[in-house]
Amino acid sequence: MAITVAAATAAGAASVPTLLPATPAAASPAVGVVPVASPFALPAPSGPFAVGREVLHLTDGSRPDPWMPGRARELMVSMFYPAVALPGRPARYLSVAEARLLLDDRGATGVITPEDLSATRTAAVLSAPARHGRYPLVVLSPGFTLHRHTLTHLAEELASRGHVVAAVDHAYESAATDFPGGRTLTCAACTVLKGQGDAGYARVATGRARDLSFVLDRLTGDRPAWRHARLIDRGRIGMAGHSIGGNATAVTMAADPRVRAGINMDGGFSEPVPAGGLNGRPFLLLGAPSAIPAGSWLRDWPLLDGWKRWLDVTGSGHMDFTDIPVLGEQAGIPDPGFPLSGSRAAQITRDYVAAFFDRHLRGVPQPLLDGPSPDHPEVVFQKTSTKI
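Structure (tokenized):
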């Protein structure tokens, strides 16, 4: 089910959204049925619940797109949620068009076919009946040039363990994202920001923070955009992001008190953590032992003013917190520079991210976050603080 929502007023204002008919699944490559068998599959979720998925198209009519000023800001959001385990249509991983351009961007054209990647097997069932209850909400933001689909194994894991998950695509910031009307938007921001370095990435992070707060407005406001919004416990909201999405998580938390806890997965703080900190809210740094984020993490560590951890995953690389290494491993093209297997990287990411949100959104003790674990010898506790 895809729902198009246009907001004509400022983000956060109480307004009645315009609901347009859903694009039929057969006509929408973003949400259609898996068309062919694929050699690829994401790891099965470990939680007790089945997983449903629906897709939202949100438009903020009050804000011009930062990369296409003549257009309103648009977002695609995949909603993963605890579902009733009934037969249903599997949710497609991504469209063939999105797959083709992602493979081009990753230099994997000719190694994996777009059709096989598009049909990657996932756990989510399209528009599955929602399981009754109230669940914490976790919002996910992907890395620059990547799309929300690359965080699918993590989203499905969290949903299977009793979270609602909103995975967000930011228009014109990915190699390819399908939007309604037969549009596949590519990375206009890549051209605009070429050569700008940290200043350009800081612009991305601050723009995404506005996107993410707008998503919260549309999911938790008086007239929510999603039909299952009643599942969301508005008092328990967390956020996590990979790469620039991790930076955007901190920027969002600094401006939006609704976000109670956040995670940065291997993203540098191009936009620094503000001097006033995050009002004592918990924050996890989960990364590869490389130079990508380390300098800004050292600089901004003292400004994270609540419970915090800095965890390095030995043998991992920048992409190891996404689906990409899992699929690369299955295709027989592991990265020799980073010896940690894709399947192991996925397990570590899911275990630590889920433990963090279980602790800080559910209040469930998580010994995994207290110190080194014999079951996870790759994870090194670089820095810790438990102040509340």
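Residues 275 and 324 are 35 Å apart (CA to CA). The longest strand covers residues 50-64.
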